[in-house]
Amino acid sequence: MNEKSPEYEYSKVPTKPLIADNPEKPPPYGYGVRHIQLLIFFFCLSVNFIARGHMGVTVVAMTSPSVHKLVLDTNNTEINYSGNNTDLQNGEKMTENNIDDGYVGNISNDDVAVVDYTNQSYSTYDWPKSTQEMVLGSFFLGYGIMTFPMGMVVQRWGGKIPMQIALFINGIVSILAPWLIHWGSWKAVCACRIAQGLSQAGVYPSIQNLLAKWVPVSERGSLTSYVYTGSTIGTVLGFQLSGVLSDTRWGWPSAFWAVGLICLAFFLILTVFGAASPANHKSISDDEKNYILGRIDDGKVRKHKIPWKAIMTSRPMWGALASHVGAGTTFVFYFTQVPSYIHYILGINVKSSGLLSSLPYLVSFFTSIAFGTISDNLTNRKIVSVKNARRIFNSISQVGIAISLICASYTTSTVIAVLCLVCAMGCHMAIHVGWMVNHIDLAPNFSGTLMTLGNTLTNIGTVLLPVLVSHVVTDMKNQIQWRIMFFTVAAVTLTTNALFVLLVSADTQPWNDLDQHDTALENVETEQKTEKQEK
Any idea what the Cα angle at residue 158 is, between residues 461 and 310, rounded to 5°? Predict the structure, then answer.
């Protein structure tokens, strides 16, 4: 062993407790405060995903009203209802005032007039598909910019404050959005979504940090899986909530207002009842606190500096990071490009079907809970080691989604194509007890930082992904070109999973408690010097 290596330095520290003064393992504890806290975190994650996901349906209501309308795309056609003269420019909004006053318009061949005959108090817009895609992608622009900075905020101040920031900003922006959009059209929508993305960049690192603080080792698989189903529930609720509210007399603005009020409500709940860690909770019992920590608490609240050098030279960390990037990129590809493939090759519009778009998420809710429960049962009963459990479930996720990709690239059957979507999402949930929980295994004190590193690299991959697809798939109706792309992505996810299987560790790494190790090392060296001087 190299004498200059961190491992050598740690090996010099004899049998002294580094984490607590009393390393005695506390007895098990039943239902308690931690379950209430995790329920709050579950709802907060769900609400953030409602705010993130509802726009996919809301933008359709903003540009394609469900009420009676007349869409005209003519060449210099004059429409005379008698009344005031108004030129309808491309992208101009029409309100009840336009309709009540009457309209005369000269419509060029590039313009589309959307005339609404109902007494509505909101505007609708004629935005082309490219503008709609810009609106939908704006959230991830903000998300990508703030991913790393918000991760550092999580590491410095814990997971509660960034989650509060996300809920508060999403709430205020959502409530103000309809008026801002009336004033600034699609540019205002993009600005609102960028602001929401900036604030939500810390959501996943926050959840990871909170789980590391609140979940005991013996319940790590099941409880983390329960909380992470919030992303699935939030996505489905976002779709349905927006669809229902947009069809009411208040139209699409009501979707923004409802989301805003929900965000602010859970901001208050998290502020009043949530706690960043057991040490910050006022009413938790000592017995439950000790059970969560896995040791008798010494009452000290420790601040940790990020050991960047140790993290970046950690082999198990790179295994988890590789699978993080591979799984994230593959998932984004599957649910942004595969629906386009099914639409152009099989003639099915998955995104426009409420059942087909929600079915994969509903299935994944149950598989996520099942994977977490099975993982904990296997490890707690010593049937498999924690390390092998991480390997097995991560492989289920990555191999499952790779096989689904390959099958989808060959099928000409609608049923099989939909089954591939469902199976892919169902298998994907196994990552909750794969590389995701492995961040907590390796370094509970820095799990949010590890999540931030992975998200930052994944954002790069998801930005480059459309560029790769556009170069490979030049003809959207060419199944061979799609198949090449599918095999490429499948190879990526299988390779990154192989790296995870080879490099994985379920042991807490020495650099997780670097400050304590350094302090203990200094104490040992001081004692040795004192002994020499006394001799």
Answer: 60
Q: How far apart, in Å, are the Cα atoms of 501 and each of 100, 377, 390, 449? A: 67, 21, 8, 22
Q: Tell me if residue 306 falls in helix, strand or coil.
A: coil
pLDDT in tens, 6-24: 444 444 444 443 333 444 5
Question: Whole-angstrom Cα distance, residue 284 to residue 32?
Answer: 8
Instruction: Give the orientation angle of helix 315-341 with respect to helix 414-428, to 10 degrees.
Output: 160
In angstroms, the Cα distances linking 183 to 37, 93, 224, 361, 396 are 40, 11, 43, 35, 49
Q: Could you tell me if 287 and 352 lie in one domain?
A: no
CA–CA separation, 458 and 462 (whole Å): 6
236 and 160 inside one domain: yes
Number of domains in the chain: 3
Q: How far apart are CA 487 and CA 403, in angstroms?
A: 10
Rounded to whole angstroms, the Cα distance separating 184 from 266 reads 29
Find tokens 């009393």 and name the residue: 22
Least confidently predicted of 104-108, 129-133, 377-381, 486-490: 104-108
Residue numbers of the domain that contains 74:
69-116
Asked whether the whole model's pTM tops 0.85, one would answer no
